[in-house]
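2024-03-11 09:14:02 DEBUG pipeline.ingest accepted 1 chain
2024-03-11 09:14:02 DEBUG pipeline.ingest length=335
2024-03-11 09:14:03 DEBUG pipeline.predict start
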Amino acid sequence: MTNIGIAITGSGSATPKVSLNNQQLSQIVETSDEWIGTRTGIRNRRLADTTESLCTLATKASLAAIAQANITSADIDLIILATSTPDDLFGTASQIQAELGAQKAVAFDMTAACSGFVFGLVTGAQFIRTGVYQNVLLIGADVLSRWVDWGDRSTCVLFGDGAGAVVLQASEQDRLFGFELRSDGSQNNCLNLSYQPQAKQIIEGVTVSQGTYQPITMNGKEVYRFAVQKVPEVIEKALFKANMSTEKIDWLLLHQANQRILDSVASRLKIPLEKVISNLGNYGNTSAASIPIALDEAVREGKVKPGDIIAASGFGAGLTWGAAIFEWGISKINN
C-alpha cells in the first residue's frame, strides 16, 4: 500500500461537575441572563474545582474516545494535547499518557488557543500520512477559569472548562479531504493571556523577571469582526482544496465562541442553520475543547453519523484560524 490516509474513528468528552449559570453570574458582576444570552447565546458554563485538573478531564475524554474507536490505550502511538492552560508549563500530555497507560505513545502539548484542535488535527494527520504512526489520540482541553478575571464583565461571562478527544487512525482512504491554516501575529493584542514581568534582583547587577500570567483580556469587537470575516474565507479555501462545494457539507462545526458568530458564518456560506452544530449555550467558550466536545455530543446523540461530511473551523488568540473538511467514522486499516 503506497497511500495512507486518516479516519476519525472515536470521540469522547468530559466537563466539570460544577456549573455557573447567567443568573448566578449576575451576583458577581453587573449583568443579566438576558444581556448575556442575547449577545452570546451562552446560558451556562462548567468550571473545574480544586478536585479537577486539565489532566483528569482530558484523561476521561480520552478513555471515552479510545473505547468508541474500539482500541486500547496500548495501541496509541502519539498523543497531541492542544491546550493553553496546562497543569504544568513544561507540558501535561505526558501526565495524560501515564494516566491512560499508553506506554508506547509519545506525547506533547501544542498551543494554538481556540484554533488548537484544528491545528492538532492537521498535525496528527501528517504523522499518519507519512506512515510513522497508525493511532493518534488528539485532545483539546482547557481550564480557562484559572485565568478569568471574575470582575471583568466583558470576559467572565464567556469562558468555561472542559476536554474533548478524538482518535485518528490509518485508513486505506483518506477522510481528511482538505484544510487551511492561518496566523496573524500583528493582531495578537486583540486576545491575550499575557505574562507580566516583575523585576527581582538576585545579586547586585543581576536582575531577572519573575512575574506571573495576568487574566484574560479581549477586544470583543475586533475578535468578532475578525471571526466573521476570516472564518468563511478559510472554510471556502479548505473546501476548494477538498474539491467540494458547501452543498456537500452535512455539518458546520465551528469553535463555540459566540452564537452570533456561528449564525453569521453559516449565513455567509449559505449553510442552513439546522446544519450548524451548537452547544455553547451549555458550556460557553471552552477554547481548544469546544470543537471536540460539540462533535462528541452530536455523535452520541445520533445527529452526526458515519459518512457525514463535516466542515470544522477554529479561530482565536494568536490570532490564529483554520479549517478542516473531514468525514466522520470510517473504519481503519485492518492489520
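2024-03-11 09:14:41 DEBUG pipeline.report Residues 331-335 have pLDDT under 50 and may be disordered.
2024-03-11 09:14:41 DEBUG pipeline.predict end
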